[in-house]
């Protein structure tokens, strides 16, 4: 009896997000919080949520899997990723289901195909790709691949409130010409920072992208956290452009965590956030294991 398990990373929002060559785009910031999917033979033991059912139906339709097969597979889902915070919880779930069904039925789906399937359902993060890329989260196109990878530490603040991603993307205002030009400068700085392995440059790009996004989804504590990051040796802030999460990019050798937290607790009221995480920024990609 075949058993497939998939681990899909969540994200601390996006390193950068904006408009490039007249296309909406982002670079997700994958972290070590995971959605877990397990597919085994046998009748279902629980109801799937709406988006999971949509992905199941889409794959069965696209790849001509007999509908009666749905009665013979049991898809189990669990997740560590907070929902509606801009942390890719939904993408991690549906991309994990796509990867799991691909492995279970030997469909051989590529990361690119999985991304394209995901955008049929909703605007999508690009956590399914192992390597960083600039991604059109509305149509699923990869606009630019980055040769370098980024691994670092991040202090994540899960602020209160929730954002429905579908509604957010419907309501986005357009960028001005000046803002598009500013984002191109952000992208250039981010790309150069990756090539040079320069976390300060990467952090500056991320912080500027977060500021550009303030008119679309305002975060009242963004500037306070950016200032604290700079004061105590962080490299900048990374935000959920379509959510409430804000992360401080740091490296252990440079960051004064104790002093940062002492000041943070005085600056940000506890009533404004739900949780703090110390996490790692990791390569993306969907991790699959198969037992026959």
UniProtKB/TrEMBL annotation:
Q: Which Pfam families match?
A: GHMP_kinases_N
Q: Does the keyword Transport apply?
A: no
Q: Which organism is it from?
A: Eubacterium limosum
Q: Which Gene3D superfamilies does this one have? A: 3.30.230.10
| InterPro entries named in the record | GHMP_kinase_N_dom (IPR006204), PduX (IPR012363), Ribosomal_Su5_D2-typ_SF (IPR020568), Ribsml_uS5_D2-typ_fold_subgr (IPR014721)
UniProt KW Nucleotide-binding keyword: yes
What molecular function terms (GO) are annotated for this protein? Answer: ATP binding; kinase activity
| SUPFAM superfamilies listed in its UniProt record | Ribosomal protein S5 domain 2-like
Q: Which domain of life is it from?
A: Bacteria
Q: Which UniProt keywords apply?
A: ATP-binding, Kinase, Nucleotide-binding, Transferase
Domain (GHMP kinase N-terminal) ranges = 54-122
What is this protein's name?
GHMP kinase
